[in-house]
Amino acid sequence: MDMLLSSQPNADFYTLTQYTINVACINITNTIKLINVLISQSASNETARNHYKSCLEHFSYGEGALDDLEYSQKLLKKGDYQGVSIVADAIEADVKDCILGRDGNG
């Protein structure tokens, strides 16, 4: 994280937060692309395929990480930094739920 933020040496808090959101968006978009490849490659393994589909829900729009990022943009523009932090926690939970194989309800 320090390297990410040090790439913007003279930025204020708002700019650093916006930069971090932008980088997260790129990373999540790339993760979604990878998950789609994994889904297509796991056609013969139903367990893996279901796991990847669940991960896709955690990362995509429709209550996933991309929705959370979009919401964090709105909160940042309002100056609601605590709200941005709460949304960041939700994104972290989406990632953990994917790794642990939890569905959207648990």
From TrEMBL:
Corresponding gene?
A: LOC113866559
The similarity annotation says: Belongs to the PMEI family.
Species for this entry: Abrus precatorius
Concerning PANTHER family, the annotation shows: PECTINESTERASE INHIBITOR DOMAIN PROTEIN, PECTINESTERASE INHIBITOR-LIKE
The protein's matches in Gene3D superfamilies, at most eight in alphabetical order, are given as:
Invertase/pectin methylesterase inhibitor family protein
Task: Quote the protein name from its UniProt record.
Answer: Uncharacterized protein LOC113866559
Sorted alphabetically, the keyword list is: Disulfide bond, Signal
Organism lineage string: Eukaryota, Viridiplantae, Streptophyta, Embryophyta, Tracheophyta
Q: Which InterPro entries match?
A: Invertase/methylesterase_inhib, PCW_Enzyme_Inhibitor
